[in-house]
Every structure is written in C-alpha cells, then in structure tokens.
Design brief:
The complex is a heterodimer of chains A (109) and B (112).
Chain A: E1 4-6, E2 11-14, E3 19-25, E4 32-38, E5 45-50, E6 54-58, E7 61-66, E8 71-76, E9 85-93, E10 96-99, E11 103-108
Parallel strand pairs in A: 2-11
Antiparallel strand pairs in A: 1-3, 3-8, 4-5, 4-9, 6-7, 7-8, 9-10, 9-11
Chain B: E1 5-7, E2 10-13, E3 19-24, E4 31-38, E5 42-50, E6 53-56, E7 65-71, E8 74-79, E9 88-95, E10 102-103, E11 107-111
Parallel strand pairs in B: 2-11
Antiparallel strand pairs in B: 1-3, 3-8, 4-5, 4-9, 5-6, 7-8, 9-10, 9-11
The chains are: A mainly beta (109), B mainly beta (112).
Chain lengths: 109, 112
C-alpha cells in the first residue's frame, strides 16, 4: 500500500463547475497536509495547507481534513481552464513529506 | 529571495558517466528534500536532510546514488555510474519544520 493515494484521473470538469479531489494516507500520526498544483513541465507550487480537522477555504479552493478517516480533499469552485493541471496531495509525517501520484484535472470550456 | 536554485536545468549524458545535480536552498530553511519525478512513478522521495544531516535515505534507489549537504547553503545529488532508467526530473525542495516545501525548477536528466 502506498503511503499517500490519489485517483490518477484525468478528472474532466466543465468550466464553472466544482472539481472534487480526494487523497488518503496510511500514517495515522501524520501532522500536516498540503495540496500542490503542477503544470506540465513546471515544478509543484503550493495552493493549500491544512493542519487540523475541518474545512479551510482560500478563494475558490477549499481543503477538508478528516484525521479519523485519514482523508484529505480539495474542492475547486467555479473551475477555470487555467485550473487544468495535476494536483498533488502531500502528507508530512514526523518531518518526512511524501506525495501522492497526483490527479490530473482537465477543465473543458 | 531567489527561491530554491537548482543547476543545471538540463543534463544530457551517456550511460556510465557521473552526474552531479546541485541545489541551493532558501536561506533559513533547515529541511532539504530531493525528489525524482517520472510519468510512471510520480514524485518519489529520495532523501531528506535536517540541519545538514541526512535523516532518511530509504528512497535512494541503489548505491549508485549519493547525496551530501556539506553546509546549510548547498547540497548535491550524485549518480555514478548513470543508467538510462535514471532519466527523470530531479527536484530539490526546502522548508522549515511542519511548513510547506518550496520547490526548485528541477533538473531534467536524460541518460542515453
């Protein structure tokens, strides 16, 4: 079992709709959680961080964390073509940051 | 701040040659990570350092790979001898305890 798991996609989303991305992790002691966006040929860039159970909103992005279920999600509201990218879930366990394989999102006009 | 600086941006080499990748972290960041990214395997953690000390190198594929961090301003990842299956994008990322990592632009390595 991989330590951080994501659906690889691609996830096709109509422009203006909500994209929903999911991530599960295996280490129950994990302390901090991040979502990165990566455009093709570029390096990952941070879009959200979350440290405690519940929801965290930042603009069109909402991250949700449920430590009991070992589950992290990312919602992208009002999806735009510029949101087309691969979204990487990252989990920090005692200083070690591991990434999921990423979910490719394609926003169609 | 110039961010995490990696060099070279691209490296093309022949099988059997030694390859050295370099990374300059953001000043004040005490964690430094080396990742390798391929289409097949995604972003794999190779090794990470805390305060210049290697903490976990369990992701280093084999003895051909080695990494050093002689001081807080510099780290290298060396592959000797290189093989075609080492072709990938290698990222260096740095950060502070529990905080998000900042990535360099990566080094695209092609071994022919």
């Amino acid at each position: 079992q991989k330590e951080v798991e994501q659906n690889s996609g691609p996830l096709s989303v109509p422009e203006g709709a909500i994209a929903s991305l999911n991530c599960t992790y295996s280490d129950r002691g994990s302390q901090s959680f991040f979502w990165y966006r990566q455009y093709s040929g570029k390096s990952p860039e941070l879009i959200m961080s979350i440290y405690s159970n519940g929801d965290k909103e930042d603009g069109r992005f909402t991250a949700q964390l449920n430590k009991a279920s070992q589950y992290v999600s990312l919602l992208i509201r009002d999806s735009q073509p510029s949101d087309s990218a691969t979204y990487l879930c990252a989990v920090n366990s005692w200083g070690k940051l591991q990434f999921g394989a990423g979910t490719q999102v394609v926003v169609t006009p | 701040d110039a961010g995490v600086i990696q060099s070279p941006r691209h490296e093309v080499t022949e099988m059997g040659q030694e390859v050295t990748l370099r990374c300059k972290p953001i000043s004040g960041h005490d964690y430094l990570f080396w990742y390798r990214q391929t289409m097949m395997r995604g972003l794999e953690l190779l090794i990470y350092f805390n305060n210049n000390v290697p903490i976990d190198d369990s992701g280093m594929p084999e003895d051909r790979f080695s990494a050093k961090m002689p001081n807080a301003s510099f780290s290298t990842l060396k592959i000797q001898p290189s093989e075609p299956r080492d072709s990938a994008v290698y990222f260096c990322a740095t950060g502070q305890e529990g905080s998000p990592l900042h990535f360099g632009n990566g080094t695209r390595l092609t071994v022919t």
